[in-house]
């Protein structure tokens, strides 16, 4: 019989879901796990022993008696007999129109037709389908969704069906590894938090920033003219190739190399201090090496502080003829502005709103950091890894938007090796984010914070509209889950802000 037929028949008789979805949301329940518990299914007599391994891990030892295996064995005989259409037999479950349709072919005929290995595998899968839900019911309130993994080798399980015609020969046992929500202990009173934050700006810094934004917008209206008779001056627009090596090791720094990188030296905020000064005077076609110390806030921690040598090749050089700041260009600088003064006022207003949002964000971060500091709980490994991967994706998106990185460079940075390196080097930061999440979710539960149906629906609609605005595909179920998580996090922050003592210091560099 062709393997395709065997596969489809096997799939047809083992198509029930392995385990039901559990209601416990990740990191939500806080019930402790007892060291050893035995649970017996009344009908099937499947027994489960539960062992706490620590670090949010539990092992379930599942024993399936031969009576249950016989049920699985019989189900596989009937399933294959009906699906495989064995020559000389026309078996139908429950009987058929013709006499003899209800007669099951001999087990030896079915097993020989299907193949012993294929049949034994199907029996094991059937046993798992019957017993895993029973086992998972013992941790339904605390298990992290989809965290269960069968630890016993499949080939070892198949040995249970090594009797005559693949019949079961004795009890079958296997183990399941499961991650559970952590048990949380508070080392301080979260109702009496005190935090101090530094304001990101004031009237003076907002005015300076607004002026810078205005000048950059005006420069964007300029006309580019090719420069051939001089070297680069600050204010020129350049197209260049660049790469970098670690000065100490001589190895290339991943994620830096770019071709035809476009830079406005008069307005761009390039997070590479010294690069613009280092290329002043360069002419088209010239190559120059520039020493740069990688900034401490570079997205990839393992690159921060590295002494690097940048190699820059100037491909094209343009002079930007910036127009005069007149009312005629006001609406191009800021939408709906009628005059230059109006444009400047709107930019300043927008900057003040940005500063206020940044202060709110800084306050929120200080509060959740203070909350996380008094939250003592083990961290589930799967949640740490998933969070880390999400954080890295977000960093790549920010770099692409903020620095104008090409998709080629983004793909280099998103390689599995780079992601794994991030998970390793930034583990402390990732764990802090997870601990924040755990603490906020526990606060939400303890204070019985409520979310109305209207609030939840509005959050879902807003999230859906944002995805559709950017033409991004999304999973509806995950979108709903994320909307719930987002509104719960926001309400937890509102509670913290209302109950904590917050001191705001003036911006850095001001008295």
TrEMBL record:
Protein's name in the database: peptidylprolyl isomerase
Domain called PPIase FKBP-type: residue spans: 233-300
Catalytic activity of the protein: [protein]-peptidylproline (omega=180) = [protein]-peptidylproline (omega=0)
Entries under Gene3D superfamilies matching the protein: 3.10.50.40, Trigger factor ribosome-binding domain (3.30.70.1050), Trigger factor, C-terminal domain (1.10.3120.10)
InterPro entries, alphabetized: PPIase_dom_sf, PPIase_FKBP_dom, Trig_fac, Trigger_fac_C, Trigger_fac_C_sf, Trigger_fac_ribosome-bd_bac, Trigger_fac_ribosome-bd_sf, Trigger_fact/SurA_dom_sf
Naturally occurring in which organism (per UniProt): Micromonas commoda (strain RCC299 / NOUM17 / CCMP2709) (Picoplanktonic green alga)
Keyword list, A-Z: Chaperone, Isomerase, Rotamase
Organism lineage string: Eukaryota, Viridiplantae, Chlorophyta, Mamiellophyceae, Mamiellales
EC nos: 5.2.1.8
One Gene Ontology biological process: protein unfolding
GO function term, MF aspect, one: protein folding chaperone
Residues covered by the Trigger factor C-terminal domain: 339-480
Family: Belongs to the FKBP-type PPIase family. Tig subfamily.
Domain of life, source organism: Eukaryota
PANTHER family, per the entry: TRIGGER FACTOR CHAPERONE AND PEPTIDYL-PROLYL CIS/TRANS ISOMERASE, TRIGGER FACTOR-LIKE PROTEIN TIG, CHLOROPLASTIC
Ranges for domain Trigger factor ribosome-binding bacterial: 47-208
């Amino acid at each position: 019989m062709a393997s395709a037929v065997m596969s489809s028949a096997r799939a047809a008789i083992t198509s029930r879901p392995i385990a039901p979805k559990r209601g416990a949301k990740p990191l939500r329940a806080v019930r402790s796990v007892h060291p050893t518990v035995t649970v017996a299914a009344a009908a099937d007599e499947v027994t489960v022993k539960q062992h706490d391994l620590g670090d949010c891990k539990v092992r379930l030892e599942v024993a399936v008696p031969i009576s249950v295996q016989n049920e699985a064995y019989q189900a596989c005989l009937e399933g294959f007999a009906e699906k495989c259409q064995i020559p000389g037999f026309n078996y139908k479950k429950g009987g058929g129109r013709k006499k003899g349709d209800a007669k099951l072919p001999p087990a030896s005929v079915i097993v020989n037709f299907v193949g012993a290995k294929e049949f034994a595998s199907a029996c094991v899968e059937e046993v798992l389908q019957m017993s895993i839900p029973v086992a998972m019911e013992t941790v339904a309130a605390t298990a992290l969704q989809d965290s269960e993994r069968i630890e016993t080798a499949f080939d070892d399980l198949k040995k249970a069906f090594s009797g005559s015609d693949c019949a079961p020969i004795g009890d079958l046992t296997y183990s399941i590894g499961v991650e559970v929500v952590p048990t949380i202990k508070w080392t301080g009173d979260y109702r009496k938090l005190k935090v101090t934050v530094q304001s990101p700006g004031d009237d003076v810094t907002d005015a300076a920033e607004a002026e810078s934004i205005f000048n950059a917008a005006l420069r964007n209206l300029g006309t580019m003219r090719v420069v051939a008779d001089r070297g680069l001056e600050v204010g020129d627009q350049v197209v260049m190739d660049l790469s970098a090596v670690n000065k100490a090791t001589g190895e290339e720094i991943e994620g830096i190399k770019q071709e035809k990188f476009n830079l406005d030296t008069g307005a761009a905020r390039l997070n590479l201090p010294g690069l613009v000064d280092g290329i002043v005077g360069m002419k088209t076609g010239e190559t120059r090496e520039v020493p740069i110390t990688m900034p401490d806030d570079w997205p990839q921690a393992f690159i921060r502080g590295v002494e690097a040598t940048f190699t820059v090749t100037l491909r094209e050089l343009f002079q930007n003829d910036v127009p005069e700041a007149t009312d005629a260009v006001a609406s191009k600088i800021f939408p709906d502005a009628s005059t230059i003064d109006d444009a400047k006022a709107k930019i300043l207003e927008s900057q003040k709103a940005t500063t206020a949002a940044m202060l709110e964000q800084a306050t929120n971060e200080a509060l959740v950091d203070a909350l996380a500091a008094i939250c003592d709980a083990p961290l589930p490994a799967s949640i740490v890894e998933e969070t880390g991967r999400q954080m890295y994706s977000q960093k790549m998106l920010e770099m692409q938007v903020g620095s104008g990185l090409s998709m080629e460079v983004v793909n280099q940075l998103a390689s599995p090796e780079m992601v794994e390196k991030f998970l390793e080097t930034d583990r402390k930061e990732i764990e802090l984010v997870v601990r924040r999440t755990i603490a906020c979710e526990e606060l939400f539960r303890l204070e019985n914070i409520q979310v109305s149906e209207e609030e939840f629906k509005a959050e879902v609609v807003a999230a859906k509209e944002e995805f559709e605005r950017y033409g991004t595909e999304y999973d509806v179920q995950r979108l709903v889950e994320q909307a719930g998580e987002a509104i719960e996090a926001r309400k937890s922050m509102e509670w913290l802000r209302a109950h904590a003592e917050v001191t705001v210091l003036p911006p850095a560099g001001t008295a």
